Amino acid sequence: DAGVPVKLLFQGEGHVVTVELKNGEVYRGQLVAAEDTMNCQLKEVVFTARDGRVSRLENVFLRGGHIKFIVLPEMLKNSPVLKKVQVAKSKKEDANTSKGSRAGGKPEGQPAAKKQRKA
Questions:
Q1: pTM attached to this predicted model
Q2: Alpha carbon 77 to its chain's center
Q3: Where are the beta strands (DSSP E) in the chain?
Q4: Strand 54-62 relative to strand 67-71: parallel, antiparallel, unpaired?
Q5: Which residues does the chain have with pLDDT short of 50?
Q6: Radius of gyration for the alpha carbons in the chain, expressed in angstroms and rounded
Q7: Which parts of the chain fold into alpha helices (H)?
């Protein structure tokens, strides 16, 4: 089963994305297909070389292991995949705060009060 970043990449299929490779090359085009390994196929691509030269390519296939990062469309921040992560995160935080109040009354992140010794 694919993780959240890869699922989000799948949601980007059909949209324009920007991909930067580890060697500094930048590709911007429509994401045709993505794989679990983050291999990506783009079409109608604007390629920017490390030296700044720009060229147009009809189709490119980028190996996932060479990708530094991918810029996905802003609209995907409302993706159901991310909503599930937010719900799971809030449930985890709720569980942690309820544990802190039951286990000795000390709020998490607060140092224990020092006991004074009698002389």
A1: 0.71
A2: 10
A3: 16-21, 26-34, 40-48, 54-62, 67-71
A4: unpaired
A5: none
A6: 23
A7: 4-11, 80-102
Distance CA 95, CA 88 (A): 11
Task: Give the bridge partners for 33, in sequence order.
Answer: 41
- Helices 80-102, 4-11: inter-axial angle, 10-degree rounding: 150
d(CA 114, CA 40): 57
Dihedral (Cα; 25, 27, 31, 35), 10-degree rounding = -10
CB 72 within 8 A of CB 12: yes
| 32-46 per-residue burial string, b: 16 or more CB within 10 A, e: under 16 | eebeeebebbbeebe
> Tokens representing 26?
């930048």
pLDDT per position as a tens digit, 87-117: 777 777 777 877 655 555 555 555 555 566 6
